[in-house]
Amino acid sequence: MPLLAVLLGCLLLAAFKVEADTTLTGELVVEAISHPWLVALRPMMFPIVLAIVALAAACSLFGAELRLSLHPVSLLVCALPFYAAFRSSFEDAELALKSLQAFLLFAFLTVFIAFRRANVRDDVVADTVAAAFSLLAFILVCLNLMFYLGGYGYLGQNARFFGATVHPNFLGVQMAVCGIILLHLALTARPMLKPMATAALAAAAFLLVQTGSRTALVVLAGGFYLCAWRVIGFKARLVSGALLLAVVSLVLVSDLAQDNWLEVYSRGGFTDTRSAAWQDLVHRITKRPVLGLGVFEGASENSLMRGWAAYGLPYFLIMSAMILAGLARLYRASRSAQASSASQLVAGLFFGLILGSMFEGYLCDNMSVGIVTLVIVSSVIGAPSAPATEDNPAALEDLAAGA
C-alpha cells in the first residue's frame, strides 16, 4: 500500500501541474478552460501529495531492512536533472532550481522503489507499479472525458482539446500513456475488469485524437507494439513492426487534416512540421556544442537535441546512455521466460515514450506525466518477476495489499 500511494500521488501531481513556459500564463489558461473545482484543487495538490508521501514512507520503514536494489537505468535518469541543475546555474537560476527540484523528486522515487524491491519480491513491486498506472489511467480518462462532455477544455477558437492540461500536446502524451496502460489491462485483466478497460481505452483514444497531437500517436503505436509483443507470433511481430513504421511515417509527413478530415491535425497547410524545428535545434547546438546555452529557447521537437542545445554534450551522452541501457534491458527481458504481464506494461511504456521523444522534447521536462512515468518504469525495467498464472491472477485489490 505505501508504494501504491506514493506512485499514484506523484503521477497525479505531475498530471495536474501547471505546465507552461511561465507559471502566470499557465494559470490563466487553466482558469479559462477548466472547471472551477479543478482550479481550486490544483494549489492544494502539492501539500496533499507531500503528506501522503511522508506518511507512506514512514509506514514502509517499520519492520523493513535498510537496503536498496538499484537499476543503472534509473540512476542515469536521475543524473539528467542533476547535471541540468549544475549547467543552468551559470545562466538561469530559476531553471536550475526547477531542475534541482526535479532531481530530488526523481531520486526519491528511485530510492523508494529500490527500497521496496529490496524488501519485497520484484514481481510484487512490478505489479504494484502496474496497479498505480491502472488507477491513474482510469482517473485521467474519466476526468478529461467529463471535461469534454461538459464543454470545458477548449481555449478560444482553437479546435484542439486541452483537457485538464494547459497544452494539447501535454494531454496527448497523457492519453497515449493511459492508452498503453488500458490496452495492457484489456489484454491481461480479470474478465470482469476487461469491459471497463476496453471502454476506457476507446475513450482515451478518442480524447487523444481530439488533442491533435501527432507525437502522441507515435507514443501510443510504439507502446501498443511492445505491450502485445508476447501475445503475438513472430510473423505478426514483423507485420506489426512494419505497420508501426508506416504509422510513424504517416503521422510525420502526411496531412491528416486533408479535406477537412480531423481538423485538429491541421498545421496551416504544412505537412512536415519537424524539419525546420530540427534545423533550429542543430543551429543552437552548433553555437555551443560542448557546454550548451544553459537555457531553453526555440524549438523542442527532439529530446536528445533539445537537451544537447540547452545543457551541452554531457547531457546528450547521459540521455543516450539511459536510452540504450533501457532498450538493452528490454531486449534481455524479452528473451526471458520468467516475465509477468506487468513487465510487458513497463516495456510498452518505456518504448513508447522513448520513440515519441524523438519527435518531442518531454524527456527534458522537470515535471510531467511522461517524465515521471519514465522514472518509475526505469526503476523496474527488466526486473526478474514471477510469471502470472491462473492460480495467481493480478488484480488491483490484490496488488495494493501485496505491496
Automatic annotation (TrEMBL):
It is found in: Membrane. Its main location: membrane. The chain crosses the membrane at residues 44-63, 70-90, 96-115, 124-149, 169-187, 239-257, 308-330, 342-363. InterPro entries: O-antigen_ligase-rel_domated (IPR007016), WaaL-like (IPR051533). Residues 200-300 form the O-antigen ligase-related domain. It is a multi-pass membrane protein. Pfam families: Wzy_C. Keywords: Membrane, Transmembrane, Transmembrane helix. It comes from the Bacteria. PANTHER family: EXOQ-LIKE PROTEIN, TEICHURONIC ACID BIOSYNTHESIS PROTEIN TUAE. This is O-antigen ligase-related domain-containing protein.
